[in-house]
Write a structure and sequence with these properties.
Blueprint: E1 4-7, E2 10-13, E3 17-20, E4 23-26, H1 31-49, H2 60-75, H3 86-104, E5 106-108, E6 115-117, H4 120-126, H5 132-148, H6 155-161, H7 177-187, H8 195-198
Antiparallel strand pairs: 1-2, 3-4, 5-6
Length: about 200
């Protein structure tokens, strides 16, 4: 394998990964590294404001707004292009629950009287907004509709509908971005439809 790639008159070093516009790109197109990088940045942002998320001077609603407007955008940068596995979804939910536990604090156990941390189900009841995985899927579907409405002359649209040459590996193939879109559509009862045609009606 050559260590350099020449495009027209420019030469580039071949690397296993590099960062472009805040997103980590890998030669295996691995989203786990991208998500790991976003979570690392999100953790750094969280530690900068963690004292605000546990103070009694601010209301819970204001602390949630701090999480949603300062921390969450850092984690979700570029999430419209992510193809998530269940393992990666769990990592994202763990991160969000960590921040929410800081906001909502502990709860006294009715039986033992001891303070304990909130369970995930309790956090879901207290957090009035959609969870982080739902937000990613919503943004991904919105972006898919936006690309589907582009004309055939646009490169992004050609990538969306184009077919790569060759065959996929015989072992269980990784989920592609468009596979995630179809799975999300199935959950809202639209999996059987021609979603690219459906997306042309923006209001619908």
């Amino acid at each position: 394998m050559h260590d350099e790639i020449t495009v027209i008159y420019s030469t580039f070093n071949r690397v296993e990964e590099f960062k472009y516009l805040g997103t980590t790109l890998t030669n295996q197109n691995s989203f786990s590294e991208k998500i790991k990088s976003r979570l690392k940045s999100g953790n750094a942002c969280y530690h900068l404001v963690q004292n605000l998320l546990s103070t009694r001077l601010l209301s819970k609603n204001l602390e949630i707004k701090i999480y949603r407007t300062i921390i969450l955008p850092v984690v979700l940068y570029g999430c419209e292009t992510w193809s998530l596995t269940l393992r990666e979804e769990r990592k994202l939910r763990v991160f969000e629950n960590m921040a929410l536990r800081r906001i909502f604090g502990s709860r006294r156990d009715e039986v033992t009287g001891e303070w304990r941390r909130l369970h995930n189900e309790e956090l879901n009841d207290l957090y009035y907004s959609h969870n982080i995985v739902w937000v990613i899927k919503s943004r991904r579907m919105r972006w898919a509709g936006h690309v589907a409405r582009m004309g055939e002359e646009r490169g992004l649209y050609r990538v969306l509908v184009g077919k790569l040459e060759g065959k996929r590996p015989l072992e269980r193939p990784r989920h592609r971005w468009v596979d995630n879109i179809r799975m999300d559509l199935q959950k809202v009862g639209c999996g059987y439809m021609d979603w690219i045609g459906l997306a042309q009606d923006r209001d619908r």
